[in-house]
Design a protein that fits this description.
This protein has 142 residues and is mostly helical. It contains five helices and no strands.
């Protein structure tokens, strides 16, 4: 009975080691194949355009988080403009242009640039009729 216990313990330990190494192999193999390069050296993927994150570097992820924090740093009470997402800047009627104008003139002048960046991040185009007004407001501060 005593020998059987040793064999069972040895078999369980051996099985644990095999599973551990298989798991490690799968993790490294999946990381290499998902990056598309087949190597784990950390070099940038040549198929990724310059300036975009390839997903293989911790620096890229930190940069993405920092950019997201900057984008969400400023909150503007303009959620009613979200319905214009994806619309062309020349497709607004007069009442819609006035909605944008109202929001623009109710904020502090030094917030206009951040508001424009916020709109851009939300894929909302400023109406053509307001672009000159907006740029002049931003230039008065600079």
């Amino acid at each position: 009975m005593n020998n059987i216990t040793y064999y069972i313990c040895a078999a369980v330990l051996l099985l644990m080691f095999v599973l551990f190494y298989l798991d490690r192999y799968n993790k490294t193999h999946n990381a290499d194949s998902s990056a598309g390069s087949g190597n784990s050296s950390g070099d940038a993927d040549p198929t990724v355009p310059q300036g975009e994150c390839c997903g293989k570097h911790l620096v890229c992820e930190k940069q993405k988080l920092a950019e997201a924090r900057l984008r969400s740093k400023q909150y503007f009470d303009d959620e009613e403009l979200d319905r214009f997402k994806g619309r062309s800047s020349d497709s607004y009627d007069d009442s819609e242009v006035e909605e944008f104008r109202y929001v623009m003139y109710t904020m502090q002048q030094d917030e206009v640039r951040e508001w424009m960046e916020c709109l851009q991040a939300r894929e909302i185009e400023l109406p053509d009729e307001l672009k000159e007004e907006c740029y002049s407001m931003m230039n008065e501060i600079d």
